[in-house]
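Run log // design_07
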């Protein structure tokens, strides 16, 4: 695999000269002319080295280097300067583990230095690229506010945490939130998907291996427990690991120690462990697929993440966020979601949760012809005949198990959504006029449209088209 280097330099000539020299050395090179552009590049890929020109640091003070250190603590950075840098730069670079290089030493020496630096870090697996949700969780519902407060409370201690929830509810996002609000936030956050690797590969990935431990082990490799250091190790899909690995994991949690594959030296675990799964642990333990003692070690603090269908009031906020993100990512000019499309989003049950919503918005943005998403291709809303009919029977509830009172309440909620959608369209999102026409006060109006997942601002934007 090619090693990837980021160059951040506002001077086009010096940037291109360095880029061509590195490409001749068979490195993959990504460039940026500003600090903001560099941040965008960093969030999308895994890099092995960052080369930052002094002008970037001079423009933004130490902010960009601080960003590198805090968000990518495992990424080596080389500050390229022409004149002697200020003492404060030298002190900060030393503290953050970054290095300084004088351009006057010449290109051959710089390439040699880069090669040595990359060889030193070659045995370390690169950091995971952080999600855009690194330190924030979107949602204004009561369920999300409760979740945020719980995570902030738990972040203050170093206890092992088990995150539980359906696929796509944002378990890794919650783990990153815990890390970002903890005392370990200046250290690495390392994520491992336990279901994505075979037993032998996962064992080597977690615990590392010694040279010669197995065929193809040509050098020593540090595992994720070592790489995480004093930071946080996130073990996703922990419920899928094999019985032998469960035994090794139990020892790690019990005694905070392990050996590399093929090694005899006992190593200490210093990172915090956050695990996540969507399995039914009670069923798994009953069927002997998961060890009870390991479950109780993992379940010191258990946090359940709510599915999206239980916090539908957050859908407009999430959809708008993904719209902006995907429009920028795909260089599209889609800026609005029409009322009909938003009603589709809030009426759909989202079995794939936030991940499915994100994918749906991305697909719609890619296929959009104008600057507004008018209609979405959702399974429950494909039929034109039922596009404007309340969808009481698509909520996942068995009609035969509903009382007449519950059924009427269900129909009423859906009918109100259609009614207020049309009223807001007619009055172009004007709150006072719509409430007056409906014969209710503003407070009641706000409560009802919030329950229906409607946003008056959307209608104002649509009216301006």
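design_07 sequence
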């Amino acid at each position: 695999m090619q090693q990837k280097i980021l160059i951040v330099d506002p001077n086009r000539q010096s940037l291109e000269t360095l880029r061509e020299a590195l490409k001749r050395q068979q490195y993959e090179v990504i460039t940026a002319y500003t600090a903001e552009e560099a941040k965008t590049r960093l969030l999308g890929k895994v890099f092995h080295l960052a080369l930052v020109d002094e002008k970037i640091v001079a423009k933004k003070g130490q902010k960009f280097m601080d960003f590198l250190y805090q968000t990518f603590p495992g990424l080596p950075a080389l500050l390229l300067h022409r004149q002697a840098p200020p003492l404060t730069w030298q002190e900060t670079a030393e503290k953050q583990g970054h290095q300084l290089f004088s351009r006057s030493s010449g290109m051959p020496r710089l390439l040699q230095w880069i090669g040595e630096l990359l060889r030193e870090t070659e045995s370390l697996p690169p950091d995971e690229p952080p999600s855009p949700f690194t330190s924030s969780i979107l949602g204004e519902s009561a369920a999300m506010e409760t979740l945020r407060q719980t995570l902030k409370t738990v972040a203050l201690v170093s206890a092992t945490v088990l995150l539980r929830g359906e696929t796509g509810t944002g378990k890794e996002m919650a783990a990153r939130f815990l890390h970002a609000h903890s005392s370990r936030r200046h250290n690495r956050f390392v994520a491992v998907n336990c279901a994505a690797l075979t037993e032998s590969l996962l064992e080597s990935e977690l615990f590392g291996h010694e040279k010669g431990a197995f065929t193809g082990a040509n050098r020593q490799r540090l595992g994720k427990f070592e790489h995480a250091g004093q930071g946080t190790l996130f073990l996703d899909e922990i419920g899928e690991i094999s019985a032998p690995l469960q035994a090794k994991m139990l020892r790690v949690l019990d005694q905070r120690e392990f050996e590399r594959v093929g090694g005899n030296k006992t190593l200490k675990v210093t990172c915090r462990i956050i695990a996540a799964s969507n399995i039914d642990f009670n069923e798994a333990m009953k069927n002997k697929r998961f060890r009870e003692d390991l479950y109780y070690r993992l379940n010191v603090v258990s946090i359940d993440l709510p599915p999206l269908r239980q916090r539908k009031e957050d859908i407009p906020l999430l959809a708008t966020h993904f719209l902006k993100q995907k429009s920028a990512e795909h260089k599209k000019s889609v800026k609005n979601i029409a009322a009909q499309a938003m009603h589709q989003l809030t009426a759909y049950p989202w079995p794939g949760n936030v991940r499915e919503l994100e994918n749906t918005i991305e697909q719609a943005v890619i296929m959009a012809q104008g600057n507004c998403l008018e209609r979405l291709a959702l399974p429950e809303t494909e039929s034109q005949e039922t596009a404007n009919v309340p969808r009481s029977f698509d909520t996942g509830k068995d009609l035969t198990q509903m009382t007449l009172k519950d059924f009427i309440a269900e129909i009423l909620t859906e009918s109100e959504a259609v009614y207020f959608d049309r009223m807001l369209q007619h009055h172009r999102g004007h709150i006072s006029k719509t409430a007056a026409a409906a014969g209710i006060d503003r407070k009641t109006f706000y409560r009802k449209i919030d329950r229906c997942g409607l946003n008056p601002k959307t209608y104002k934007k649509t009216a301006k088209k």
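The chain has three domains: 4-121, 142-304, 310-463.
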